[in-house]
Description:
Blueprint: H1 2-14, E1 24-26, E2 34-36, E3 46-49, E4 57-60, E5 65-73, E6 83-91, E7 97-104, E8 112-117, E9 125-136, E10 141-149, E11 161-164, E12 173-175, E13 180-182, E14 190-191, E15 194-198, E16 207-210, E17 215-218, E18 222-231, E19 237-246, E20 249-259, E21 265-274, E22 281-291, E23 294-295, E24 302-309, E25 317-323, H2 331-343, E26 348-354, E27 379-382, E28 387-388, H3 400-406, E29 415-423, E30 429-438, E31 446-453, E32 465-466, E33 498-499, E34 506-510, E35 512-513, E36 516-517, E37 531-539, H4 544-549, E38 555-562, E39 568-575, H5 579-583, H6 588-596, E40 598-599, E41 605-606, E42 613-616, E43 619-622
Parallel strand pairs: 2-9, 17-24, 25-26
Antiparallel strand pairs: 1-4, 3-15, 4-11, 5-10, 5-12, 6-9, 6-15, 7-8, 7-10, 11-14, 12-13, 16-18, 18-21, 19-20, 19-22, 22-23, 22-24, 25-27, 27-28, 29-30, 30-37, 31-34, 31-38, 32-33, 35-36, 38-39, 40-41, 42-43
Amino acid sequence: MIKNLLLSALLLICCASAGAQQITFSSTKTPATVHKNIKKAPADALKWGYTLADNFTALGTSATGTFEVAIKVPGTGDLKGGKVVSVNLPVYYTGMTNVSVWGAKSLTNPTKVFEKAVTEKLEAGYNEITLDTPYEVDGDFFVGYTFTITSVADSKAKYPIGKVEGDTPGSLYINQGKGFTDYAGGSFGMSALQIFLTDVHQDDYNATFRLNRGIFTVTNSENVVPVEVVSNGKQDISNIEYSVEINGKTETKTADVAIPAGFRKSGKVNVAFTSPAAIEPYNIKLTINKINGQENSNKTPLYIYGDNVTRKVPYKALVEEYTGTNCGWCPRGWVGMEAIKNQLSDISVPIAVHQYNNTDPMYMDYLLYATLPVEGAPSAVINRDSGIDPYYGTGDDDLGILQDVRDLAQTVSPVDINIKAIYNEEQTRVETTAEVEFLSNSGTYSIEYVLTADGLKGTSSAWRQKNSYYDQNPASSDVDPNSELVGFYLGGQYGKNYVFITFNDVAIASSYENYLNTASEMPIDFVAGEKFTDSFTLKMPTKAALKSAIKYDQVYANVMVFDENGYCVNAARVRVLTQEEAAGIKVMQNAERRTQNAYNLAGQKVDENYRGIVVKNGKKVIK
C-alpha cells in the first residue's frame, strides 16, 4: 500500500539506526469503558496525559518482538510534588505478553524510578495499573510501558500501540529494539498513555483561552468567534467573565460554559466583541478574569490576529475524508460524511479521498491530490487543519463531527467564491471558471480545484466495502442505536464482512500533479473589492471501472481558497453542466433526463424518498 510505503520511508529517515521496523496505521475506535484491573485510583486523583479522553485509535509495527512506548511528563510545574499512584494503560490488542509499566528519568538510562509488571488479564480499553509504591514527582520524567508481540496472525496484533491525534512535543517515543526514537511532531500522533496523581497542587479556578489561528471579522460590527477554554482548576466551571481589548479599548463580557473539574479539561464559548471600523489587521487580547464569580488565578491573555473584511459572504467548510474500500473501520467515516452531505450541505463541502488501498476503483493516486494531515483511515480533516475522526469528530459523541462543522458556520471569510463548470463535447474534460473576490486589503492565498462524483457503485468485488463492525453486537457497544452506523453491526442492513454501498462526494480529479498544485497563482497585491478570475481544466477519469460508474449529471466542481498557512478560508461547489445545459438549449436527451431525475435546490440529484423542494422538469415541486 503506497501510504504505508511513504510512511515507512519517513520512519527510516527519522530513525538513528538501521533496520528499524515499519510502522503502519490503524484508526480503530476502542470501547469507551475503562477497565480497572487492580484497584481504582483515589477519588481525588488527577488524571494527566496528552489525551484525557477514554477512546483512542491504534498505531502498529506489523511485526513481532518486544517494544517500548513512552511519554515525557513535565515535572517542574504544577505536577511537582504530586505522587503518581497508577498508570492508565491503553490496550487495543489484549494478547500482548510480558507487559509492564514504568517510569524513568531518562530514556537512555535503563534505571527505573518505578516499575510494575502486569499479571492480570488485559481488557480492551484503558487498564489502570496501580503502583506498589507511589512515585513523588521531583522533576521531568518519562512514563512508559513494555510489551511483547509473539504473532501478528490476529490483525489487532499489528497495531498494539494506543494513540490519539496530535503532535505535541514529548507525546510519543517508541523503542523497536534499537533505542528510543522521538516520533512526536510527525504524522504518527500521540501516545494515549495516562497517569493518575494525588497531592497535586490545583487552584480552585484556573483557566485560559486557546485558539491556534487568526480570524476575520466584518468592519464595525458585532462578531462571535468560538474559542476554547482550557481549565486546570479543582472546581467545575459554569460561567466566565472575560475582557476583550482591541486598539486600547476594553469590553467586558460573560459567557456560560460547562467544563468539569480537572487538569486540561476544556469547552468552547462564543466570544463576542465589536470589531474596528478600518479595513486593516488588528490584535485582540482576551483574558479570563473571573470564573463562577470568583477570581481566576491564571490571567494569562490570549492574543489573536484579526483582519477586517468589507462584508459577510456565504461560507462553506472543507471536510476531506481519507478512506478506502479495504479499510474495515471506514464504514463509520462513510456514515459521518453522508450525514454531513445530507444535513450540512449549506455550510460544507465534503470530499471523500480514496487513498487507503490502490485496489479501490475510486483510488486517487497520492501524486494527484494534496497531502492531507492525517495518520490513518478513517480520518477526516476540516479546512486542512489537524486530523480528526470522520464520525466522532474531535470528541466521543456519535456523529460529533456534525457539531465540529456547525461550530464553523458563523466563520467570516476573506474571499467570496463564484464558480461555473462545463463539460467539453466528449465529456472527457471539465472547464472550471472561478471568480474570487477579495474582501480585505491583505493576505496571501492559493486556489485549488477538485472534481467529485456522487452515486458511485459497482457489482464487482473491488467495489465492496470492507466492514469490521459486522460481528459486533450493537447492544454491547456504546454506539447510538439511532445512528446509521448500527446498520453495519451484527444483524444490521450492512452486517456483513464486505458490503455493497453507494459512494458519494468521491474525489475523481484535482489540480495536483506530481504532488504539486498546478492551478494559477493568486495575486499578493490587492485591495478589498478586487476580483481574481481563473480557469482550470480538469480531466475526467479514464480507468474503465471508475469511468463506467460515473453518472455525468452527478459530477461537481469544487473550488477551495487557502491562506498562507494552508488553512481553507472558503470553498464552493457547483454541478458540472453539459454545453447544452449551460447554453440553455433544451434538447430531447436533456428533456428526458429531467423527466426522470429530480434535484434539490443545491443542484444535487435526489431519489423518490427525498422530502422537501425539488426541481423536476424545470419546475419546483414540494415532495
